[in-house]
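Page header: ASSEMBLY MODEL / two components / 594 residues total.
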Amino acid sequence: MNKANQTLMNAYVEKIEEQLLKFTAEKPELQGVVLEAMEYSLTAGGKRLRPVLVLEFYRMCGGDKLDEILDIACSVELIHTYSLIHDDLPCMDNDDYRRGKPSCHKAFPENIALLAGDALNSLAFEVIANAAIDGRISAEKAVMLISVLGKSIGTEGMIGGQVIDLQTENEMIDIDTLNTLQGCKTGALIEAACVMGVILAGKFDMIPAAADYACAMGRAFQIVDDILDVTGTFEELGKPIGSDEQQHKNTYVTLLGMERSEQTARQFTVQALGSLKYFDNSQFLSELTSDMLTRRS
Amino acid sequence: MNKANQTLMNAYVEKIEEQLLKFTAEKPELQGVVLEAMEYSLTAGGKRLRPVLVLEFYRMCGGDKLDEILDIACSVELIHTYSLIHDDLPCMDNDDYRRGKPSCHKAFPENIALLAGDALNSLAFEVIANAAIDGRISAEKAVMLISVLGKSIGTEGMIGGQVIDLQTENEMIDIDTLNTLQGCKTGALIEAACVMGVILAGKFDMIPAAADYACAMGRAFQIVDDILDVTGTFEELGKPIGSDEQQHKNTYVTLLGMERSEQTARQFTVQALGSLKYFDNSQFLSELTSDMLTRRS
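Prediction written out in full:
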């Protein structure tokens, strides 16, 4: 990334992480532990890709009151974090590590981790509604945002993808099914993030272009994730290498092989970059998107 | 209940149960199992008290388009059902039965039950937002409803109460802590239901009276629940008798004794009935509230 873009990225991440801390700042004595668990997972690192996408689409569409919509941008990170906490639970992937740290249910009792995820889920929607009640966004925008976010994480989106993943765990699936699975499981929330940025800026005619970008970018992102799971090291990824493979998961690498996976990721990246031509000031996001192909963690 | 009130109650429950079925009507092939799990728990019976409260406060405040707000009234039942599914999980109360039927995680794999609860949680908010997008309610009302509902089930509401419950499981607590615990765990969502009915009807000045009613009624409801857990039979309650006691739970009965619990429930019922005098046409809700004292399941 060039220096100007890196500066923007750093500024985004700093603001996002400041905001994330605010959600759990108050910890009532009796139930404080669940807020600690929420904070533990919210501050466990990660690329903050989803809130960055909200903020960047907002900016590309002419939005210039970033501080007023920061908590809304972070609502997608609340959702992402809830999904990671629940994904790691013993009855799901049973992962003891996440980003090099003990998973939430290893750092806290399992029932507290479950409830921390539940609380993050509904908090995301409450945050958006409250921004409208405060007058920072219109009520009309808030209901659009909530509808888009809700659909993206429901049975036709993230949850649907997780279920398809579980249902096909020990069987070989075809590439179309894997595309559906991943499009739901990770693609839908990424698309929601991009579309939410556009809605926040009020440039509703740009929603289809944002969705096109997100579909291609989300696909590339997932393929690279699958590739990294095979080639990365524990230190870089924060989880045991090949952990997906050991559990007989269907991944782009196991279905397409490494070479075709890399090729396909490149194709989708080119497609994503093409969708960005409809936006002004897309240099930052273009570079971020290209960088994703060469990321190592 | 007198015949007219019973007819109204039956009509409410019939409409609510029709609506609940609509939420899960479409079941995509690959992820259909999670919609089956949601439907299983949504149709497992129960008094439907929370959506009835939404509808009745709406009606008492002059609302007369019940069919247009039915899905919103049911959003509180989506939340209630999600909370029951997650409460029953092995890492929480580990209950194999709910209302005389196997719990969701006994009828379905545990991970599907977890995800069914997650999907119901976010669906509740999506449903309210979509009612505004459809033009059935104003966006302003929708954000108020979502804010009220979100707060009631978050760390200061339902989740907070569940955490206090878990944190104090094996210790004797005082009555103030039990009041906080129950006020959060069950009272907050009941209050949200009553307030949401008022918001839907647009009679915002009646919100405090609805909240007063709900606080007193919720308290009475929980005490009666605790009493029934000791005195009920498996057949009537659909779960093993004394199951709460066996797990060393703090209940009104274990803290106050049976006689004072019954007395306190009566006092709160009188207080709840008093709050209803601010509403016209409160005969139905008055009778429902009184009946709660003598319910056997």
